[in-house]
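Re-run requested by the PI after the first attempt was lost when the workstation crashed. Everything re-entered from the original request form. Ligand of interest: sodium ion.
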Amino acid sequence: TDTDNSIAASRGQFATRFAVIAATVGSAVGLGNIWRFPYEAGTHGGGAFMLLYIAFIFIIGVPVLTAEFIMGRSTRSNIFGAYRALAPGRPWYLAGYIGIVASMTIISFYSVVAGWTLEYFIESITGSLSGLDSGQYHSRFLALASDGVRPVLWTILFLALNFVIVARGVNKGIERISNLLMPTLFVLLIVFCIRSLTFSGASEGLRFLFSPDFSQITPSVALGAMGQAFFTLSLGLGCMATYGSYFSSRTPLLRSAVTTASLDTLVAILSGIIIFPAVFTFGVSPAAGPTLIFEVLPSIFHSLPLGPLWSALFFFLLILASLTSTISMSETAIAFFIEERGMSRRTATMTNATVALVFGTLCALSFGPLDGFRIFSLNIFDAFDYLSSNILLPAGGLIISIFTGWVMPRHILREQLSPARRITLTALTILLRYIAPTGIILVFLRSTGII
Ligand code: PFF
Ligand code: NA
C-alpha cells in the first residue's frame, strides 16, 4: 500500500513476510534458548520449571507479544512514541524507560556470554578444545571466565561486531543475517539431539527435564520461569514493539506472535534435550549455572566424528544467533535516542555502544577480579541478569498488558488484528485485561513473600 511504501522509505520496513518472521525469530532465538534456558531449568529443578515456563510462554508471552506488535505497528514508532500516540498527554510513556534500562542491562551481560562463545569458536578451529575429559572442560571454562583480560577483549570484539552491523540500519543488516541462520541452526541442533539421545544418561536427562516434581514448584521457580519466558521472547522492553513498527500492514500479528513463540520454544526444548542427557552422562551438575553449556557442549562435540568441525560450526551459528538478538536490543535503544532525543543514527549508535562497553566490561570481570563485588550476594553479571529478566521485563510486560487491555482505544485492537474472529478478540482481551496482569502480580508478590 501507499502508506507502507512511504513508511518503508522513511523508517525502513521488512521486505517480505518471511523477513518479518526471520527478524522476530532472530531476536527471540539466541543465548536465551541455548545458554540461559538449560541453566535456569537446571538450577530450578528441571521438569517443574519446564511446566511453568511453557505455561507462561503461551498464557502471558503470546498475548503480551501480540500487544507489543499492536502498539508498534499501529503507531509506527518506538515504545515511547507508541504510548504517547495511544494515550496522549498521559504519563504511560514513562514505562518506556524500564525498557531502555532493560535493553542496556541485558546487552551488557549478554555480550559477555557471546564473548565466551567467540573464544570457544576460535578454540574449536585451532583444535585446542578437543580431546579433554569433562573435568578438564570444567576447569578450562572457569579459567576463561575468571581471567582478568580475555573475557573483556572478547566482549569488546563482540560489541564491535554488533555495532558495525547496527550502524548500517534495519533492512540491510538484520534481514541478511536472519534469513540463512535459523534453518542451519535448526539442522545442527537436530544432529546434536540425536547424538545426546544415544548417551547412557539419556533417560535420566529426559526425566529430569520432562517429568515435573510438583513439590519443586516454589515461588522462586515460578519467578525464574516467568523471567525466562519474557527474556526468551525479547518481551516487555519494547523491542518487539519496535520490530512491530517495521511490519507491513498485511502482517498477521497474532499468527506472527504464535509462530515466534513456538519456534523459540522449540529451540529451547531442543537445547534441553541436547544438554541434560549429556549432563547425566558426563557427571556434570545440572545446577552448574551460567557455566553449564560451556562445560557440557565440548564433551558432546568431542563424542562425534569430526568433532572440531561440528564444534566450530555450532559456536559460529551461536554467535550469529546472539548478534541477531543484540541487534534487536540495540535497535530498541537507538530508535529511542533517534526518535525521542533527536540524535542522529550515528550519535545514537555511539551512545548505546559506549554504555554497553562500560557495563559489558564490568560484567566480563565479574567472575574474576570483580567477583568480590556483590549486590544482594550476586556478582554484577548475575545481578544484571536477575534484575532485567525477573524484574524489569515482567514489570514492562505488566504495564503493556494493562495498557493494551484497559487504556488503549478498543478499535485499535480490532483493526490491528483484523480479520480476526470475534472469539479471538475476546480471548485476547481477557488475557490482556485479567489473566496476564494477575499472573505477573501474583508471581511478584509470592516471590517477595508478601502473600
Ligand atoms: N530473546 C533473546 C534470547 O532469547 O536470546 C534475548 C533478548 C533479545 C532479550 C532482545 C531482550 C531483547 F530485547
Ligand atoms: Na529466546
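Saved to the shared folder this time. The mean pLDDT is 92.
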